[in-house]
Amino acid sequence: MAELGAILDIADRRREADQPHSLIVRFPANNPLRLDAGIDFGPLQIAYQTYGTLNSERSNAVLVCHALTGDQHVVNDHPLTGKPGWWETMVGPGRPIDTDRYFVICSNVVGGCMGSSGPASTDPATGLPWGLDFPVITVRDMVRAQAMLLDYLGIDSLFAVAGGSMGGMQALQWAASYPQRVFAALPIAAATRHSAQNIAFHEVGRQAVMADPDWRGGRYFAESTNPRRGLAVARMGAHITYLSDAALHRKFGRRFQDRDNPTFSFDADFQVESYLRHQGITFVERFDANSYLYLTRAMDYFDLAADYDGVVANAFLGTPTRFCVISFTSDWLFPTQESRAIVHALNAAGARVSFAEITTDKGHDAFLLDEPELFAIVSGFLDGAARARGLPPPRR
Amino acid sequence: MLMRLKHDLTMAEAARGPGGSRVDLLVVADMVEPGARVLDVGCGDGELLRLLESRGVDGRGIELSREGVNECVAKGLAVVQGDADTDLENYPDDAFDFVILSQTLQATRQPRVVLEHMLRIGRNAIVSFPNFGHWRIRRQIAFGGHMPRTENLPYAWYETPNIHFCSIKDFRLLCQVSGAKIEEAVALNAWGRRMRLKMPWWFWNLFGEQAVFLLSRRG
To answer: Is A328 helix (H, G, I), strand (E, B) or coil?
Structure first.
């Protein structure tokens, strides 16, 4: 029974990769995506969701960029898990990114597994999933693909681009690559480059996936296996880095799970173990192992300064974009000093920048959670930007 | 309207002008040219930046306290969390027309370094500070024998953030050693009123409770 469930699960995920429950646009091979790896990739499929209404001036579009394990389902139920969208606290009617005022777009990143071209998509040349034959992609490639989507939608200039973590990297890359197309940028819990420690964590995750015998050199779809154990372990390790010592202690402490005494075994005696195992298992239901390899790699390669003679400020010289940089006190994956480095570079470039550090014990994941101060700051920043852009005030 | 305000304040409205703004901030704001690029170092809750932006100034701020920063950003102001003592060095030369240090000089660790950075970053610097040479303060030290506490400087010595007090006379010396040219100076009396111009410096130093200096780079 478990085996049958696993096979259905694989079929669902493969269908979602090729024919997603989303809007899609297909770019033919003669309109390829130019990749940093030096490859012209096409045909290309981009899956995306939109919320709200584009105004007649086409000036109220907000691009939301998702993080490593996120997707385009920002404020609708997830097609595979049925769970609510990942940023319902931030996006929606009357929310800081107010869908009554703004036209919100979110696309699955290239390399993802929820309908945009990625390793789980079918390679038209072979009729099989790309697997490791999919080219290695970068954050800049993700942004280029999003720019193609905006061209297709007829949106010249974004009112704002916002995202946390890998989404924040995309927001920064957007402002660097297309300064004239970005009125306001909101990189949250982000950095101008992935740190050595973060690359190290990613490498542990990738090795966990690749060490699973079911990974089969990346050809698990063809062999009807799924490296669920490897991917679950990768997720468990990564999940710890998204939280904080204080938050784990507050939520779980040393409490036992459904028992009063240790079992003197390797069962999940502690609540924190049980929680992590649950995180691993549920992740495998919705995410593709190869996608995890590709997207962690893209983050590892991210280094804005490298593209601008080693000086981040050069990426933003004379930028017309206004920035709001936000970090969290307990985030040790993208700590405040990384955000401060963004701010120093933007100051050196003469950019209009706001920067706030929010006090919380929730760690890196705080950008996804209920943080009233975060919402007040994002609302205030966007309100100010909307006034400057000449967008009408909220109706309520 | 503003010209009238400067000279006709009654005592009752001394602390705040008709727009609700603090008079010392209005004095500072009047020194800024419309359309200028301004950096307000130690911008607090953003009151001066708001006043400046309402006059079409392109304003940015630095603020040490997290609450102050978050309040400013939520108001839509371009403010970053930072420290005057350590973060000014990250700004390039001539990035601003005016760099303002309002009621913050006395709380910096290295006032001279801060002032020199301000004059490097901006074409002009505007500094306002409480005058430690005011007669009430002198009286408290001379006859009370204790560190002074006033309405503007309410802290006890052991918990004050103000570690580098100076008088108007002292500040003029700082200008001299750090290569600042005094373009304009205004003293405010105990009621926040602008003091009559053309008074000798010693008079200002004795009766001015606050001072506002507009500086430029010498040479």
So the answer is: strand
